[in-house]
Amino acid sequence: MNARRPLMARPQPWMVRTLLLGALVVYPLLVPVFWVVSVGAYAIVLGIIALSLTFLAAYGGMISMAQMAIAGAAGYALAIFSLHSASGDIALLPWPSAVAVAMVVGTGTGLLIGVVAVRSQGIYMLMSTLAIAMILFYLAQQNTTLLHGFDGFRGVAVPTVSGMSLRDPLPFYYLCLVFGALLYGLVLYLVRTPFGLAIQGIRDDPRRMTSLGYRVAWHQVAAYGVAGFIAAVGGVLALWYHGGISPGSIGMTATVSVLIASVIGGLGHPRGAFIGALTYVLIQIFAVDLVGNERFNSLIGFVFLVIVMLSPDGLIGLWRRIRGDRTGLGGVVVAPRQ
Amino acid sequence: MVGHRLSRIAAAAGIAAAFSVSAFAQGTVRIGGLATLDGPFVALGQEAFRAMELALEEANYTAGGRKIEWIKESSDGRPDVALTKARKLIEQDKVDILIGPMSGGEGLAVKEYAKSVPNRTFVNGFSAAQETTLVSPAPNFFRFSTDGAQWQAGLGTYAYDTKGYRNVAVVAGDYSFGYTQVLGFMSEFCAKGGKVIEKIWVPNGTKDFSSSIARIPAKADAVYVMLGGADAVNFLTQYDQSGAKQPLIAGSNVVDQTVLSSKGPFQRQLVGTPSAHMVADEIDTQAYRDYVAQYKKRFPNALSSPSAPYYGYYVATKAVLTALNQVGGDISGDQAKFRQALAGVKLDTAYGPVRLDENRQAIANIYVTEVARRADGSLYNRPIKVIPNVNQTLGQPRDAFVARGVPSRDNPSCP
Questions:
Q1: What was the ipTM of the complex prediction?
Q2: Which residues of A fall within a CB distance of 8 Å from B84?
Q3: Cα Rg of chain A, angstroms
Q4: Cys-Cys with B38: which of A171, B76, B294, B307 at CB 3.0–4.6 Å?
Q5: Is residue A15 domain-resident?
C-alpha cells in the first residue's frame, strides 16, 4: 500500500458535512415539488447506483458495467412479489419481505457477477461485465412468463406506511436521502476497515497482497457483493420512483448513464457519484431548454468529453484544481491501474 | 368553526398556489406536447410535432379567447423516459393539458401517472395499447385515436370471406402491441371459423428471421405478420429470399409508409397484401384531399402523405382546441368543465367522425386496405372498405369483452 489511500487524507471539516446535510434536509421545503422528486430524489437514486460503481472503481480499481443490471435484478425481484397492473389483488409477499427478497437477489447477483468478473482486469473486466449486463437485458426482454418480456411491469404499488404513501414527494425524497446518506457513510466506513484496506491494497498491488497471505479473488468478489448491495438499494428506489420496470430500464442507454454519471462526478471519491448523478439529471431535464430536444445526447457527450479532457478525475477533481490543491490529493484518490 | 374555515381557506390557497400557478392569471393556456425525437421512433415523433404545429397554427395559437403556449418535450420510446418528461411538463413547465405520448408502453406509464395529478388533463397522442383505456382507465386521460385491436377491425372477415383463407400462421412482435393487434385480427377471423394454426412470437429488434420463417407450417393458407419498422423490412426481405410463396396479411405497422417507401425486391411480395388501420391513402373525399393538400403545403419536405402518428396527434390537438372553445377557455379549478366538454367532443376528420365512449376512448372508422402500386412505382394503401364507428370492444358487449382478459401470447387462441 502506498500513501495515496484515503486513510491519510485530510479530514473533511465536520462543519461542511453538517451544513450540507442540513441544506439537503430543508431543501424540499423550499422548492416546488418537481425539484423535490424529479430532480432531487431521482438524482439520489441514480447517485446510489453510481456509488456502487464508484466504490468498486475508487477502492477496488475495478470498473463494472453491470451495476444498472444488478439494480434492475433487485427491481424485477421486487416487482414480481409486489402488486402491479397484471398481478390481481393480492401481492405474493408483504412489502417488507418483498424488499428483503429484492435485496438478496441484488446482492446475490452482484456476488455472482463478481465471481466471473474478477477473473479479468481493466478493459477486459469492463467488457465482461458489459456482456453480462446485456445478457440480463436480453433475458428480461425475452422471458415473457416471469419477467413479462418487452412490456415489463407497470403500475407497481408503492408501500404505504401509517397512512402515508412512500411515493408522496416528501416521504420519497427523505427516504432516498436517508438511504443515500447511509450508503455513503457505509462506503466511507468500510474503506477504513481491514477489509477496505485490503481491497485498496489489492488495487495497488495484488501480487504483494497475495504474498502477504490475502485471498485476492475472494476480497474482490466480496467487494462486488457490497457494490451489489448498494446497487440493489438503488434498484428498489428506482422501481418505486418509476412505478414500474421494463427491459429499457436496464438496457444499454441506462447502463451507460451510470458510467457517465460516475465519470462526470469523478471516479476517485464516493461523493463524485452523487455530484455526477445530479449533473446528469439536470442536463437530461434541461437540455431541451438549452439546445433542443434532438441534441440531448450530443450535449451530454460534449460535457462528458470536456470533463474527461480537462479533468480526468471529474467535477470533484476540477473543484480541487480550482482551489489550487495540487499537492495533496485532498481526499481524492485516482485509482492507479496496474 | 372559524379556525376550521380559516384552515380550509389556507389549504385551498396553498393548493391553488401549488398547482394553478400564474397560467390562469396571465390568460394563457399551456399545452405540452410529448413525442419521440430520440430512439427508434424519431420519424414518428417529427410527424407528431408537425401535426401539433399545424393544428395550433390553424387556430392562430388561441382557443376560447385565450392565448396558447406550446411546450415540446421528447422521449426516446422508453416508458421511464416518457414518465420523466411527462413529470417535467406537468410539474416544472406547469402545462394545463398534455398531449402524448407516442408508443404503447409509454402510454401505460403516462396513464398511471395521470391518476396522481387529477387536476390536469392528458390527451393521448398515438400510443395504442388496448389496456390504457380498457383496464382501470384514468378519469383525466382521453384517447381520440383508436387502439391496436380496433385497427384490425374488418381484416379477419376480409381474409376469411374475400380472400378465402382458412388456416393462418402468425408471426408477430412479442410485446403488448403485437398481442393487441393479433387479438384484433383473430377475434373476427376465429369467429368466422378460421384457424390460427401456429403463432410465432419474435423479440423486438430481431435481425435473423430464418428460424421463424422455417417454422411457418406448409398447410397455412396465409401468414399474418405484425412487426414494426426495421424488423418488418428485415422479415419481408428474408421471407422473399426464402422463396416462400404463402400470401401475407399485414398488421398496421407492416404497411406503414416508412416500410412501403423502403426499396427492395420484397416490395413485390407486398403488392395486394391486405391490412387495416385507422388511416389509408388516396381516399376519394374532399375532406381527405384538403387534409393532404394542407399537409403538403405546410411541410413540403415531409412524407408524401400524412402518416398515422400525424393523424393521431392532429386529432388530439383538434379535440383539445374544440373543447377549449366550447368552455371559453375555462380551465379553472380542477378543469372539470373543460374535461366534461372534451368528453363530449365530436370531430369530423378526413377519416370520418370521431367520438368517445364512457372510458374516454375513441370510436371511429377503420379502413381495410390493400397495398397497391402507383403509376410512379411507389406503394400505397388502397382503401377497400370502411368499417364505420368501430368501438373498443369491437362490437361485443363490454363485460364479455373485458372478461376474456388482456391479450397475450395465448389469448385468444383458435388452433
A1: 0.78
A2: 38, 42, 284-285
A3: 20
A4: B76
A5: no
